[in-house]
């Protein structure tokens, strides 16, 4: 919610249309027990952009926000701000410059640069981090497994253990990171790969 309350404050101060730039980066490579990775593999960009091009505030969502209350029972979001979101609440005014997926990236280097009106550039931060951070983490792990296998075949079997639709993000990221195949039939089909798997314990 705080992205929206921040955007409303910018709106109230007349700063919501101010052109800004936000850089998305990470501060340190992942830790694997006693060893720290020396790089990450960028992932998640395509699915983030697919979401961004379709996303906008619909009437039912604005009505939901209209009913938000603080601890004193007062409305959190004012009508004029909600009207602004109704008219300008998509992300078409933003420009995105990013490192392509599958590239090696390093700490404190911008992976994604967002430019545009401050309010909408602020609101998009959470979806951007949600889509890119997790997939980058999984792609990095997959890349390190491929490297450690020294030519072995790496299969991704995470579908049953993953969290809901995040399973598809994980599968896609693992394949971007270099995993050769996945047991996830749906994502394998979308990406043009044959699914690979073994069998469940119940078959033994």
Automatic annotation (TrEMBL):
Domain Nicotinate phosphoribosyltransferase N-terminal: 2-133
Gene3D superfamilies (alphabetical): Aldolase class I, nicotinate phosphoribosyltransferase
GO biological process, one term: NAD+ biosynthetic process via the salvage pathway
SUPFAM superfamilies listed in its UniProt record: Nicotinate/Quinolinate PRTase C-terminal domain-like, Nicotinate/Quinolinate PRTase N-terminal domain-like
UniProt keyword Glycosyltransferase, yes or no: yes
EC number of this enzyme: 6.3.4.21
Organism superkingdom: Bacteria
Any GO molecular function: glycosyltransferase activity
Record keywords: Glycosyltransferase, Ligase, Phosphoprotein, Pyridine nucleotide biosynthesis, Transferase
Pathway given in the UniProt record: Cofactor biosynthesis; NAD(+) biosynthesis; nicotinate D-ribonucleotide from nicotinate: step 1/1
Reactions listed under catalytic activity: 5-phospho-alpha-D-ribose 1-diphosphate + nicotinate + ATP + H2O = nicotinate beta-D-ribonucleotide + ADP + phosphate + diphosphate
GO CC aspect terms: cytosol
Family stated for the protein in its record: Belongs to the NAPRTase family.
Name of the protein described by the UniProt record: nicotinate phosphoribosyltransferase
């Amino acid at each position: 919610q705080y992205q929206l309350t921040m955007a409303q404050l910018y709106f109230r101060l007349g700063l919501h249309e101010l052109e800004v730039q936000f850089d998305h980066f990470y501060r340190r490579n992942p830790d694997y027990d006693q060893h720290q990775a020396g790089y990450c593999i960028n992932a998640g960009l395509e699915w983030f952009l697919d979401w961004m091009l379709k996303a906008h505030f619909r009437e039912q969502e604005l009505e939901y926000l209209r009913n938000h209350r603080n601890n004193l029972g007062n409305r959190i979001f004012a009508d004029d701000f909600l009207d602004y979101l109704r008219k300008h609440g998509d992300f078409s005014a933003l420009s995105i410059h990013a490192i392509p997926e599958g590239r090696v990236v390093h700490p404190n280097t911008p992976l994604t640069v967002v430019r545009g009106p401050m309010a909408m550039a602020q609101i998009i931060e959470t979806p951007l981090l949600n889509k890119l951070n997790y997939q980058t983490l999984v792609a990095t792990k997959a890349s390190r497994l491929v490297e450690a296998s020294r030519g072995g075949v790496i299969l991704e079997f995470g579908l049953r253990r993953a969290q809901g639709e995040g399973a598809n993000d994980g599968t896609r990221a693992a394949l971007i990171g270099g995993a050769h195949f996945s047991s996830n039939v749906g994502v394998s089909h979308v990406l043009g790969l044959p699914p690979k798997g073994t069998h469940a314990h119940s078959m033994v």
